[in-house]
Design goal:
Layout (H helix, E strand, L loop, with lengths): L2 H4 L6 E5 L4 H12 L3 E6 L2 H13 L4 E5 L5 H15 L4 E4 L28 H29 L2 E6 L13 H21 L4 E8 L14 H8 L14 H8 L10 E4 L10
Parallel strand pairs: 1-2, 1-4, 2-3, 4-5, 5-6, 6-7
Helix pairs in contact: 2-8, 4-5, 5-6
Bound molecules: nicotinamide-adenine-dinucleotide.
Nicotinamide-adenine-dinucleotide binds next to helix 2 and helix 5.
Length: 273
């Protein structure tokens, strides 16, 4: 078999949540450029319209479906719609997520902002992050499993984070708890769905320049500062996840399930010189 056939996603039907920006947009591009039909789901309707129109103009097959992943009945309707229009769902990226701001240590590590201390951490902030970054993944997984079980095949990929692996004072505790929960949810689903030939894996990115957290990482000074914590010496571009996305969405990864794939320039394993 030729290597390009092994990684083929041609004629797949894929769903990507949080598809209008950043990593979800990169997953969408990787699949649609290579012949898949990608249903882009996002709550940002303006960005969804703009990005889906841009990809359509390139001749790629995409559809934009406005959806907030915290809307459980809306999620079921959206997935039912995909099935009604396309008759199958091969691959789902449960990717939508937010960053609620820093943890108990300020980003420059100069002090501890009192409002981020455990005893002051706002309940509403906790609830919002858990609702999107953990409950949203659960809801997406449920909808994916319901349809994939009918065809006894499929691939699900969850975007976690290196925050699921190591605790870091500069990141909000709700974000870390949600990502660690999503990683374990991935493992639970992988075990349960293995007998139906449905594979469930996670991508755990390090620092990628996207619009997350209001887009603070687009600032070159912030990039340089963050890059100093990474053994590879820099933050990453979302395109650098496209190869892994194709691997996990295709038969190239046919024996991979229940695994979390870390792409972080070695940030999570230690500090270099
Ligand atoms: N950028 C990084 O360095 C990084 C690192 C680790 C993990 N991640 C994870 O990657 C995923 C994507 O983030 P990104 O960096 O591409 O950010 P981004 O802000 O560029 O893109 C996120 C997209 O998700 C959408 N979204 C947010 N909440 C939603 C909701 N409730 N329903 C539907 N859509 C929603 C946004 O509108 C946006 O289009 C997130 O789960 C994030 O936690 C990012």
């Amino acid at each position: 078999m030729k290597i390009e056939d092994l990684f083929s996603v041609k004629d797949q039907v894929a769903v990507v949540t949080g598809a209008a920006s950043g990593l979800g947009l990169a997953f969408t591009e990787a699949l649609s450029e290579n012949g898949a039909t990608v249903v882009m789901m996002d709550r940002d309707t303006a960005a969804l319209e703009a990005e889906s129109a841009r990809l359509l103009s390139l001749g790629w097959r995409v559809e934009g479906v406005p959806l907030d992943v915290t809307d459980r009945p809306g999620m079921d309707r959206a997935f039912d719609g995909v099935m009604a229009r396309h008759g199958k769902i091969d691959t789902v990226f449960a990717n939508a997520g937010i960053d609620p701001g820093p943890g108990y240590v300020a980003p420059d590590r100069s002090h501890r902002p009192p409002e981020n201390a455990l005893e002051n951490y706002e309940d509403a902030r906790w609830d919002k992050v858990i609702d999107i970054n953990l409950n949203g993944v659960f809801t997406t997984l449920k909808a994916a499993a319901r349809h994939m079980k009918v065809h006894q095949r499929g691939q699900i990929v969850i975007t976690t984070s290196i925050a699921a692996i190591a605790v870091e004072g500069g990141i909000g505790m709700a974000y870390m708890a949600a990502k660690a929960g999503a990683a374990h949810l991935m493992r639970c689903a992988a075990l349960e769905l293995a007998r139906y030939n449905i594979r469930v894996n996670a991508i755990a990115p390090g620092m990628f320049v996207t619009n997350i957290g209001g887009g603070w990482m687009r600032d070159p000074q912030a990039q340089a500062a963050m890059g100093r914590h990474v053994p590879l010496g820099r933050v990453a571009h979302p395109d650098e996840l496209k190869g892994l996305a194709l691997f996990l969405a295709s038969q190239a990864s046919s024996y991979a399930t229940g695994a979390q794939f870390v792409i972080d320039g070695a940030q999570s394993i230690g500090t270099a010189d």
